[in-house]
Design goal:
With 185 residues, the chain is mostly helical. About 4% of the residues have low confidence.
């Protein structure tokens, strides 16, 4: 009876460890997915921003607003998923600063009917946009690299926990079988 209680407790414990490891792997995959989505939404926002700055077309401004709404949702999701990781929280804060500085667009501040705040030629706007997206891309890449590293660790931990659980179960089953044989004999 004691062996059955101990076996039940150990199986419960190892199952809990495996579930925790599995949860960490799944969370890391979610973060990687959101990082990729964020990058796509940022590319959309940058394209629409540039289109608006170059042409002044209202359709670009509306599409920019939709893309930035998706970006804000993505960042909120990243903050939620990464709340236990200080390094990712720092990366997210830096990402927010870059986005507001480099991709911000306030049509109310545009003066004199110009779509281009600085009166810059279109090639300058394109170069500025490329530089901004390069900086943001590098930061998102670094965030993805950190998550992929964590994914490798989490997968190894999940595999070790699964193996440990199987070994523990086999040993305990063997011990219970031996005790039962001793009782019967």
């Amino acid at each position: 009876l004691i062996a059955l209680v101990v076996m039940s407790w150990l199986v419960h414990r190892t199952t809990g460890q495996f579930q925790d490891s599995y949860y960490q792997v799944a969370r890391t995959y979610k973060v990687l997915n959101v990082i990729q989505r964020t990058q796509l939404h940022l590319l959309d926002a940058e394209t629409e921003r540039r289109g608006y700055l170059l042409t002044g077309g209202e359709e670009y401004l509306n599409a920019y607003g939709r893309a930035m709404s998706f970006v804000r949702n993505d960042i909120d999701r990243l903050m939620e998923l990464g709340r236990t990781k200080p390094e990712q929280q720092t990366n997210i804060a830096n990402l927010q600063v870059l986005i507001s500085k480099k991709l911000g667009l306030d049509p109310e501040r545009l003066t004199g009917g110009k779509t281009n705040q600085h009166g810059a030629p279109p090639i300058t706007l394109t170069d500025e946009s490329k530089e901004a997206m390069d900086q943001i891309g590098r930061l998102l890449f670094r965030m993805g690299q950190e998550e992929e590293y964590a994914l490798g660790q989490n997968q190894q931990r999940a595999e070790a926990n699964a193996m440990s659980g199987q070994i523990t179960s086999a040993v305990l089953i063997g011990a219970v079988a031996m005790v039962l044989m001793l009782i019967i004999i």
